[in-house]
Amino acid sequence: MNKIDTHPIYIEPFHVDFTGRVFLGVLGNHLLNAAGNHSQKRGWGIGALNETRHTWVLSRLSIEMMEMPRNYQHCQIRTWVESVMKLFTNRNFAVEDADGRPLGYARSVWAMIDLETRRPCDLLTLYDGDILNYVVSEEENVCPIEGHGRFRFRDAQLVRTIGTYYSDVDINGHINSIKYIEHILDLFTREQMERGIRRFEIAYKAESYMGDTLSFYLQPVSDTEADVEVRKNSTPDTPGEVVCQAKVRFN
Amino acid sequence: MNKIDTHPIYIEPFHVDFTGRVFLGVLGNHLLNAAGNHSQKRGWGIGALNETRHTWVLSRLSIEMMEMPRNYQHCQIRTWVESVMKLFTNRNFAVEDADGRPLGYARSVWAMIDLETRRPCDLLTLYDGDILNYVVSEEENVCPIEGHGRFRFRDAQLVRTIGTYYSDVDINGHINSIKYIEHILDLFTREQMERGIRRFEIAYKAESYMGDTLSFYLQPVSDTEADVEVRKNSTPDTPGEVVCQAKVRFN
Fold first, then answer.
1. What does the pLDDT average to over B207-229?
2. Domain check: are A109 and A204 in the same one?
3. A227 and A122 part of one domain
4. Residue after which a domain boundary falls, among B102, B134, B166
5. Whether A45 contacts chain B with CB within 8 A
6. Which among A23, A141, B59, B235 is least buried, having the fewest CB atoms inside 10 angstroms?
């Protein structure tokens, strides 16, 4: 079996923003679907894993786009496993137009957890290390964007606190990974969003649940870059646990 | 050309709620896409209309489901024009599983407006009444659910006020029709949403824009039914203009 899958996507009218470019959250959803299909076909999907009481957990996602797909555009996502370590695997993506011209790339990091203990598993021994069969060669691993960066929050300011409701929650009862992206981008002005996003990074640190409040702390880095930290159930005295951290770079 | 189109849909993992059933907003989005494709193919789509400076505006949508599509399910939407009046057209939908077994139905009402005057157009004379060629026969028009009801708000209570942000806005700069559905369903409890939605009706009354505040007024009708009125930019003294009204019936 080929190690790289090509997953066609189509940009629907309600999935584009006021500039006609696809919402980054929608693109993120397409990436996660492409990843899910790729694993599923190779026996590593959520369905197969549930039988052995394991599941994938997304830890990092970095997306960098030269050009955002636009309304009604047919595109494709290619995805593959870059590498496997004991507790994490790196999966990369290329976003291309229908002719295979690159529009952008993404990198992601995943852990596999045991559903009962919620502890990470050893990917190198699970299923006799079968996942190693899907790691691509160095030549095939074309993903010319920076790796995941580090976050340093020094003077982030609380800018918004929101409740979480029915529409925020996924099938596991957790706030959906994509909804954090939407809520984070909702912090920015119309002018910033008009410029469009060049790069977006997110690190998922802890789960949150329906009914949790999420507080958003914004730290501008430069004219074109800002970091955001999301904490849950902060009180006036104490910032709550960090749920995720993100970096947004505008064009 | 056949008057009824069949539009395949697939229920993706991040598009289902904590019960594993598709979010009603996502289903609504699929219905609108099916409608868009159906019009487009017959020369009545947004693209063609923009050239003549007209566009479709959704006025009513009522969805009634015997069974909600579930995670990973392949389904299809059939859609057709039921009737055309001077200022409105009725479009119906059947939601079916991949074998054509009905899961539910929907009805919708659309107006066509002139983009410059924002006034409704006469559908019976536009393009020499071409749309009349697509009205199905009575036998083909199988949509065994009630028509759109009337709303009567007497003692609705303000239950939530929210801001509107980047993710709420569509390509026209308006709050997206589907986002209202999400925000309305977010008013309900986990227990109500667990039962699932049997019928949902919405009447769109006015546009709102990024930055508008939306106030949600809830009027319980019975144990299994509630009405919601959404107003924009209400002040403590004066309820704002009505943006939309909805009725939710739970299983």
1. 97
2. no
3. no
4. B134
5. no
6. B235
A82 and A167 in a common domain: no
Element (H, E) at A66: none
Q: Which of A16, A166, A186 minimises the CB distance to B188? A: A166
More confident residue, B102 or A116: B102
In B, which residues are within 8 Å of A186 by CB distance?
A: 165-168
Whichever domain contains B206, its CATH number is 3.10.129.10
Looking at the complex, does the CB of residue A171 fall below 8 Å from at least one CB of chain B? yes
Q: Which residues of B touch A17 (CB under 8 A)?
A: 166, 169, 171
Are B78 and B25 contained in the same domain? yes
Distance CA B66, CA B110 (A): 25
Total number of domains constituting chain B = 2
Judgement on whether residues B115 and B182 belong to the same structural domain of the protein = no
ipTM of the complex: 0.94
* Contact at CB, B170 and A14, closer than 8 angstroms: yes
Which tens digits make up the pLDDT trace of B15-29? 999 999 999 999 999
Contacts of B210 in chain A (CB under 8 A): 18, 190
Mean pLDDT lowest for which of A56-70, A172-186, B111-125, B147-161?
A: B111-125
From the list B197, B35, B183, B30, the residue with the least C-alpha distance to B108 is: B35
Question: What tokens were used for A23?
Answer: 């919402």
Domain contains B99: yes
How many C-beta atoms lie closer than 10 Å to residue A30's C-beta? 25
Q: Which of A36-40, A145-149, B105-109 has the lowest mean pLDDT?
A: A36-40
Count how many residues are written for chain A.
251
Q: In sequence order, what DSSP letters do the residues of B5-36 get, joined into one string? A: EEEEEE--GGGB-TTSBBPHHHHHHHHHHHHH
B167 touches chain A (CB under 8 A): yes
Question: If we measure between CA atoms, which residue out of A234, A211, A225 comes closest to residue A246?
Answer: A225
Q: Among partner residues B25, B71, B190, which is closest to A167 by beta-carbon distance? A: B25
Owning domain of residue B82? 5-134
Question: Which residues of chain A have a CB within 8 Å of the CB of B173?
Answer: 18
Q: Of A100, A134, A168, at which residue does a domain stop?
A: A134
Test mutation, A29, A162, A167, chain B, max B CBs within 10 A = A167
Return the residue of A nearest to B29 by Cα.
Answer: A14
* Global pTM value: 0.95
| B151 lies in some domain | no
3-class DSSP state for residue A185?
A: helix
Residue A173 tokens, joined:
């009862």
Give the pLDDT confidence of A152-166 residue by residue, as tens digits: 999 999 999 999 999
Does B120 lie at the interface with A, CB-CB under 8 angstroms? no
- C-alpha B82/C-alpha B90 separation (Å) is 5
Same structural domain for residues A98 and A25? yes
